[in-house]
Amino acid sequence: MSSPDETPPTSTADTSRRRGRIIAVAVGLVAVAAVVLALVLTGRGDDSPGAGGSPEPSAGSSSASSTGGGTASAEPTDGPADELPAAGPDTPEAPPVAFDESPTVLTGVTARVKSVTAVDGDATLPGEVAGPAVLAELELTNDSGTAIDLSTTVVNLAYGADRIPANTFSTGTSSFVGSLDTGSSATASYVFAVPTDEQDVLRLTLDYAVDVPVVVFEGAAS
To answer: What pTM does this model have?
Structure first.
C-alpha cells in the first residue's frame, strides 16, 4: 500500500497526450512561419523590376521621355518660343514724283526734297566702305493742326535701273526723330553709298508709317 505523500506514476496515456499537444503547437508555428516567409518573398518579387511586369512610374518621373535624361514637356508646343509672326503685305507706294515736288504724306503733312548732291562717303563704322555717295536732305512740314510722331519715319534710296538698295553711311546721316508740332517743319539728312555712274537714276522713298502709303521721289543727284 502506497504512502499518501507519494506521487502516482504518470500514465502512458497522459504522456502521449502531452507529446501530441507539443507536436501540434510546433507544427502550427512552423506553418505560420512558412506563411509569413511566403508573404515576404511574394512582396519582394512584386517590387523587383523583373517580376510581374514593369513597375509603376513614380509621380515625379517623366512618362514621355525614353531616350534622354531630361523631363519631357507636358504638352507639345506649336513652334519655337522665339518664332515671329508672318510678315504682312508691304505698305503700298504712292505714284512717284520728281525731286522738286512736295507730295502729301498724310492729311496736313507734306514732304519735300531740299537737295540731293554728290559727296564722298566717310567710313567710320565696321562694315562701311568709303567711296562715292549722295547726300539727300528732306523736309517734313506739319500743318495738320496737331503734333505728329516722326519716330517711325524711314528713308531709303535705290539706284540704277535695277533699283539696287543703297547702304547708309553713319557720318552725315541724321534721321527724323521725336515729334513735330503743327505749324513747324523738320529736316533730316541721309548719306547713301552710290557709285558715281549710277547717281543719275535715283529713287528716294519716305515711309512714314505702316498704314500710310510710301512717298516716292525720283530724280538725279546734282
So the answer is: 0.60
Residues 26 and 102 in one domain: no
183: left (phi over 0), alpha (psi -120 to 50) or beta: left
Are 33 and 104 found together in one domain? no
- Per-residue DSSP letter, 53: S
Q: How many angstroms from the chain centroid is the CA of residue 42?
A: 53
Residue 117's DSSP bridge partners are 135
Sequence letter at residue 153 = T
Domain range for residue 167?
97-219
Bridge-partner residues for 119, per DSSP?
133
pLDDT, tens digit, 9 for 90 and up, residues 63-84? 433 344 444 444 444 433 333 3
- d(CA 169, CA 121) in angstroms, rounded, equals 7
Three-state DSSP class for residue 17:
helix
